[in-house]
Design goal:
The protein is 39% helix and 20% strand. It is of the alpha/beta class. The chain folds into two domains: 4-266 and 475-493, Aldehyde Dehydrogenase, Chain A, domain 1; 271-463, Aldehyde Dehydrogenase, Chain A, domain 2 (3-Layer(aba) Sandwich). β12, α10 and β13 form a beta-alpha-beta unit.
């Protein structure tokens, strides 16, 4: 593990990319406008980022379309695309420290998570889809002998990838890697809160040999650059990860423009269900704490609701509170830090409002509930204590709405049926965890809970081979796994009459 001083020294040397990347070149926004990239770590400005708008987006889409139509990428053999994507993954790995530091400074992720999980996850994703590029077969339909019917996978064309700020690089790769492996051109719009690693990724793409125009990055605000991509008549598919509210806007934009296909991975209110027959209460408690407070609770499938049978409620809460007390907000660049800052002051203020609402509506505040100010914070107001509300009613706002911060709502229940009812009581359906020794109960939860991923005796486990996505207002479409390719290919049927 690299030292705190190593990361502090590297932070003094690093050069931050700031321009858009269009048609193989770093360029300013056409009107010269920028927005400030402020680190939540200490409130200091890191860079002025190009603020792309409709004109810049149109240039990027035209570049992507031209590259696609020329066949410079789409007509390469799958083995050729595979080799270049593998080179891209190697370059990302070679620059892993630089990228990890950018993530930590840009959006506040702890350097331990950024360097050990986020960047390696991005590398693995590119490698995995690179390997998949030459392993996808077309099909022959089982028709009568007098016909031959081929079903071909073909790339959709120009893909817009719009990604969030909580895992910027890894989720960007979840979108871009399968889209590129399938032969598409990509226009990536990073969240305005976290543009740095996306721009560095573009530089490395060119060095790897991805042709000009095939991979473009347009930083900017959601209401300008993001909306322009959603409404663009020459974008064939749009893949989005973010809030359910904004996901709904992209569906509207698709309907208002060219009916582009849309895939959404949106919000969540994941229940962590602990039943009375749980085998290892210590393991469950540790998973609940990590699930609620990992990445400062800024995870779509954060286990923000603990649904626990009353007979184990008290002993479990004692263990959870003891573990939570060890989470002291600190410098994200210190490898010992387990709880860092939230992404910016506006988001922090929004989370604080939920802390007030929880108390006003009668939940029991048993841990945290206020801001923190570690020594490194300087001008930052983005640090919060990990907060636990106990005896939460299912109708309370903090039990229903996605807070996206270090806040755990504990809901005691009488039995499994009530636990399932509570688990399904929100508009979201992204993930669910259940802790039990009973195989029948495991299977009943897996069948009855409305969620895209079910974890049994663990929380938020998985790898690149297992799909991620949701039910209900958590969206549709899947990232990771072979199923991710479904968003980025069309199926063309060729019927040949052999009479």
């Amino acid at each position: 593990m690299k030292s705190h001083q190593y990361w502090l020294d590297l932070a003094q040397q690093i050069q931050f990319p700031s321009q858009a990347f269009i048609n193989g070149q770093f360029v300013d926004a056409h009107n010269g406008e920028t927005f400030a990239c402020i680190s939540p770590r200490d409130g200091e400005e890191l860079a002025q980022i190009a603020a792309c708008d409709e004109t810049d987006v149109d240039l990027a889409v035209k570049s992507a379309r031209s590259a696609f139509s020329s066949g410079v990428w789409a007509n390469k053999t799958p083995k050729q695309r595979k080799k270049i994507l593998q080179q891209w993954a190697d370059l990302v790995e070679q620059h892993s420290d630089e990228l990890a530091l950018m993530e930590s400074l840009d959006m506040g992720m702890t350097i331990s998570d950024s360097s050990s999980m986020n960047i390696p996850g991005a590398v693995e994703c590119i490698q995995w889809f690179a390997e998949l590029a030459d392993k996808q077969y077309d099909e022959i339909a089982p028709t009568a002998p007098n016909a031959l019917t081929r079903i071909h996978r073909v790339p959709v064309g120009v893909v817009a990838a719009i990604v969030p700020w909580n895992y910027p690089l890894m989720i960007a790769c979840w979108k871009a890697a399968p889209a590129l492996a399938a032969g598409n051109s990509v226009v990536l719009k990073p969240a305005e809160q976290s543009s740095l690693t996306a721009l560095k990724l573009a530089e490395l793409a060119t060095k790897a040999g991805i042709p000009d125009g095939v991979f473009n990055v347009v930083p900017g605000l959601g209401e300008t650059a993001g909306k322009a991509l959603g409404l663009h008549m020459d974008v064939n598919a749009l893949a989005f990860t973010g809030s359910s509210r904004v996901g709904g806007l992209y569906m509207q934009y698709a309907g208002q423009s060219n009916l582009k296909r849309v895939a959404l991975e949106c919000g969540g209110k994941t229940p962590n269900i602990v039943l009375a027959d749980v085998e290892d209460l210590d393991k469950a408690a540790a998973a609940v704490v990590l699930g609620a407070f990992g990445n400062q609770g800024q995870i779509c499938n954060a286990g923000s609701r603990l649904i626990v049978e009353r007979t184990v409620h008290k002993p479990l809460m004692e263990k959870i509170q003891k573990l939570t007390a060890q989470l002291i907000p600190g410098d994200p660049l210190n490898p010992e830090t387990q709880l860092s800052c939230l992404v910016n002051e506006a988001h922090t203020e929004n989370v604080v409002k939920y802390l007030d609402i929880g108390q006003q509506q009668g939940a029991d505040l048993v841990s945290g509930g206020s801001r923190a100010k570690p020594e490194n914070a300087k001008n930052s107001q983005c640090y919060l204590q990990p907060t636990i509300f106990d005896n939460v009613n299912v109708a309370m706002t903090i039990a229903q709405e996605e807070i996206f911060g270090p806040v755990l709502s504990v809901i005691p229940v009488d039995d499994l049926d009530e636990a399932i009812e509570v688990a399904n009581s929100t508009v979201y359906g992204l993930g669910t965890a259940v802790w039990t020794q009973n195989m029948k109960k495991m299977e009943w939860v897996a069948k009855e809970v409305e969620a895209g991923v079910i974890w049994v005796n663990c929380h938020d486990h998985g790898d690149i081979s297992s799909p991620v996505g949701g039910f209900k207002q958590s969206g549709f479409g899947r990232d990771k796994s072979i199923h991710a390719l479904d968003k980025y290919v069309e199926y063309k049927t060729v019927w040949i009459d052999l009479n």
